[in-house]
């Protein structure tokens, strides 16, 4: 006879940052949670550099501090961002600037490497009572219906719960198997991310530059050894051009990036591995099914232009945990999932639509779009209420 299945309140499929954050939130609320993650435990405990730098809002930073994750991140690797600078076309055009408010706090947000956030969240999750992390395990099959939810692992083990949470990325297998479709906006571009060293200080400024034929972001990072002289490059180009750049040796690549950035920060030198990702935004048609909830990129996979992907993912798991805590006691109760869906959709749908619209307009190089971009930045720079509203959105001090 097969052994009785393990029983939990919630199973989280995916041990990325949002999946781990969800497990921590639910564990702190007294729930029994099982996280199933394909990566082995040594990768979860010390994730490799993946090129991605996260612009944490104040709300996200405060949440990380509240659970004890902030102190697990080396302080020298946390870079405050004082200014966001947006440019379009060739250098010399007036930029649109967003500065931290004079009445405080002194930063718009903080830049932290994604792999350091993952490591910090794993350390907290691993010591949170009620949270079991099944690393190095894959899900062979899953089910969720009106009565129960669960998974069967590749080794044949069966795990049951009141709720199954899909935190398995923007190309979520669990979402597809549940028959939940998604809006997929394929921008027909790839993104390359890496760190570049340069002699000029980044002055804690995040640059988003919509140049003709390419989009470049230079995000301030603060390595321990030489703060102020290293930035994260986020380069958006057609896939063939990204592949060509990745194949260059370090010296040739550095020369190319120096030319692309028009030497604005001096001679660029490659400092890290070059990581490439397809540029696709995803928005699920529904965020839940019977005893199934979608969080993170499985629900909303944002274009990185607004740097809000992780922040929205963090809010999504908070929303789910709050709906469960306020519910009748059953984590998979239909009323709980309906409340989660309603709240998270209101928080994400407008930003998703606006982000995609901006990304489309600001990456088209036909003359009318170039003129509209320049005029738009010039007008926006004079609209102080608009700038204040965007600044508040970037900072998200009140969640």
TrEMBL record:
A single GO BP: ubiquinone biosynthetic process
Signal peptide stretch: none
FAD-binding domain sequence ranges: 8-343
Record's keyword terms, sorted: FAD, Flavoprotein, Monooxygenase, Oxidoreductase
PROSITE patterns found in the cross-reference section: PROKAR_LIPOPROTEIN
GO molecular function: FAD binding; monooxygenase activity; oxidoreductase activity, acting on paired donors, with incorporation or reduction of molecular oxygen
Superkingdom of origin organism: Bacteria
InterPro entries associated with the record: FAD-bd, FAD/NAD-bd_sf, UbiH/COQ6, UbiH/COQ6_monooxygenase
Cofactor: FAD
This protein's pathway: Cofactor biosynthesis; ubiquinone biosynthesis
NCBIfam families linked: PRK09126.1, Ubi-OHases
Annotated family: Belongs to the UbiH/COQ6 family.
UniProt name for this protein: FAD-binding domain-containing protein
Organism per entry: Gluconobacter roseus NBRC 3990
Name of the gene encoding the protein in the UniProt record: visC
